[in-house]
Amino acid sequence: MFGSIYVGLSGLNAYSRGLQQVSNNVTNLNSQGFKASTVSFSDLFGTQGNGGLSYSAGEGQAGRGVKNGETQINLAQGELRQTDRDLDLAIDGSGFMMLMRGDEVAYTRTGSFEVDKDGYIVLSGTEYRLATLDASGHPVSLSVDGSRSSAPQATTKVTFSDNLSSSATSFGVSDIKVIDKNGGEHVWKVKFDKDTTATGQWIVTVTDDKAATIGTQTLKFVGGSVDPTTTKLSFSDAISGLTVDFDVSGVTSFSAGDVSTLRASAVDGYKLGTITSVTVNADGKLEIGYSNAQKKQIGAVAIADFRDPQALKQRSGGLFTDSGTAQRSLLTSADSRVGKIVSRRLEASNVDLSKEFGDLILIQRGFQASSQIISVSNDMIQQLFGIRGQG
């Protein structure tokens, strides 16, 4: 009978811990990146102690109660929820982002990141830096400080398109903005005047914003298309140091009255740019956007794949650690085994509330039944004590 009390106590102990586990799952219903853990129980046989509760079991004893089973982390992916921050990152797949803080390493499925004062991309509220892979495949933390500006590039080509009416006598394209090698902007105007001395021939004159002539070239058309000898017109400006080629190969010259649709459809070159955004692109690489519309990739985010993810230990803040038994491989988003890293997404908790409430009922009934065993055993012992003096 005393053994039955210990059996009942093992049930109270196990179900109390199970309730704590379910409570932790339920209360983290809205914790981003949280992974629920499973609740399980296992029977006990033999005479070894269990959490301080023990008794001597004789030969043929049926058993000595229950204990908590091995905890398993449910690593199923939670819902990926849309956000408006470029550095809200999540993994669409089975991998983990790698984080570094000195010699310490942690992993996460999702997180809100930011650029710290030293230019490193860190998990918000922590000093953990997002790891990227270098050319040798080794994890490193990168700073954006070395890429805070995008050097200017001089204009070398202006592309024209559409129709220059053969019935018109002149046409102008104004406000063509070209950039010199130092990032300075210059406004050019281009005027097309029909050459009355030759059929299908136009005089092209380029002037700057001070009305100074930069240069003059001849444009020829044959049957409405540009003569192959004049598909490229070159203009040089000694003041700005620019030499710009006008690509007119796509221009036509058909009759359209006085209406011409000729336009500068593309101008290369750009000014000095400053950082406007830091994000992760579709290829899983950190990408910096600049005010001059240029982009620069500075490294692929390191994604960890674990052969035994159950060996990971779940920590506060959606973090996981590995003691070395999970057998890690570092890959990039291009590898289908780990899934893709996505920007402007945060992974929600994967807690299944209906399952947790089902477990809660079973735990409650188990605890209730175990307490009843203790109560009945106690009543039987009281009865045994009451035998004294009877007869």
Could you please describe the fold and organization of this structure?
There is one protein chain. Helix content is 15%, strand content 40%. By secondary structure, it is an alpha+beta fold. The protein folds into 3 domains: 2-74 and 350-385, no CATH class; 80-149 and 275-347, no CATH class; 157-267, Tick-borne Encephalitis virus Glycoprotein, domain 1 (Sandwich). Strands 5, 6, 9, 10, 11, 21, 22, 23, 24, 25, 26 and 27 form a 12-stranded antiparallel sheet that branches. A 5-stranded antiparallel sheet has the order 13-14-15-16-17, with no helix packed on it. Strand 7 (110-115) and strand 8 (121-123) form a beta hairpin. Helix 1 (2-27) packs antiparallel against helix 2. The mean pLDDT is 91.
Compute the average pLDDT.
Answer: 91
Query: Shape, please?
Result: rod-shaped
Using only C-alpha atoms, the radius of gyration works out to: 38 Å
For the terminal residues, how far apart are their CA atoms?
23 Å
Summarize this, please?
This protein is α+β, with helices and mostly antiparallel strands and 391 residues long. The protein has three domains: 2-74 and 350-385, no CATH class; 80-149 and 275-347, no CATH class; 157-267, Tick-borne Encephalitis virus Glycoprotein, domain 1 (Sandwich). It has helices at 2-27, 353-385; strands at 41-44, 65-68, 80-82, 88-92, 96-101, 104-108, 110-115, 121-123, 129-133, 139-141, 149-150, 157-163, 170-179, 185-194, 201-207, 213-222, 225-226, 232-237, 242-252, 263-267, 273-280, 285-290, 295-301, 303-306, 313-314, 319-321, 328-331, 340-343, 345-347.
